[in-house]
Amino acid sequence: MKWLFLALGSMFVQQTFVTLGKVLPSVLAPAIISELHIEASWLGVYVGMIAAVSLLVQAGCGSIIVRYGALRVSQISLLLTGVGLILAAPGIIALMVLSAIAIGASASSTPASSHLLSRYAPGKYAPLVFSAKQTAVPVALLIAGLIGPLLNEIYGWRHALVVIGIGCLFFPLMLEFMRREFDSDKDVTRQFHLSDFRETIGFVMGKPELRGLAFGSFAFVGLQTTFIAYFVIYLTEIGFSLIVAGTIFSIATAVAIPGRIFWGWLSSRYISPRAMLGFLAILMFLAVSGVALFSPIWADWQVTLVAIVVSASVFSWHGVTLAEAARLAPASMRGAVTGGVLSFGQCGGLVLPLLYSLVLGVTESYKLGFFICALPAFFVGLLLLYSARHQMTIIRRQPE
Fold first, then answer.
1. Over the stretch 88-97, which tens digit does the pLDDT of each residue have?
2. What would the pLDDT profile of 200-214 be if each residue is shown by its tens digit?
3. What pLDDT shows up at residue 400?
4. CA pair distance 221, 387, nearest whole angstrom
5. What residue ranges define each of the domains in the chain, with the CATH number in brackets?
6. Which end of the chain has a smaller Cβ tally under 10 Å, C or N?
7. C-alpha span between 20 and 31 (Å, rounded)
């Protein structure tokens, strides 16, 4: 039990820093865009580059996790995040490209943490444990929304990136003393092969249960990435200050902290993971469609209320998905299979922000982009609910 809590705590902090590194540039985007005199649509390109690199990393990191250990890979992910933030600080386009590559390369953090937690989490309560760890993501969004604009107001956006980047560089040192235990299952004979990408994706697509999770991951990560990238700047465009927009973003995302634990608890005891994810997918579509209705006449509390519903769905599905992916994977492939499922999410994180950027560039409409990017979640929700119902029908027909 001691090692479970240490694993959960260390992976929670790791996930917080890595997520903070990914979302902070988006929260600070209004200030960055204003100073560098670039179009808002270029934010989608930056986010898309992160997703493209993340896709490759998550699809192929399984062997690396097994060879070097989940904790070592977590440490490297933190270092890459810190370097990526510091590279973005000068505001030079070439360094921004390198920043996106470094931050995208940190995407092995989630498969590594899943590999580690699956060793210590009791099977029955795995969704709850994974959901508790994944509350690090809304915690990071909360910190980014509150601290990012404040640091920008006092010191400027460049210093804000550097301060968080330095934190990412220092935390790996604190994890070192736990490495003997947490990386005790590493296999130094394991070799990395380019065929790992094909085998991982083939395994995920060849298993119907995992395939459904992969499609869901595509829609969910894509919608989440798009919302994070454009929500704050969207609010500033319709008349909110950066401080107010960041505060609304933080208040809303805070709901995902208990939300993830609640959905994980329900999924552990009462509702099948696929039914849970199907329900959340439909809620995502409805909530983000509500965001597309915002106008300058909306009061702060109305905007915040809709954003809270977005947070309770778009930011709250991760633990259920990761626990189910780990449950369906062979013990030696938990990191690989989790990475394979999430690599489809990174496809969504690449495609949907770029689609939003295209819609914004052509129509100059933030609203239409949100609605279009929410549509995949609606169709995936129907698919998952049908799959869950079909599964229950088969179980009931089986002889006792």
1. 999 888 898 9
2. 778 887 777 788 888
3. 46
4. 20
5. 2-175+194-397 (1.20.1250.20)
6. C
7. 17
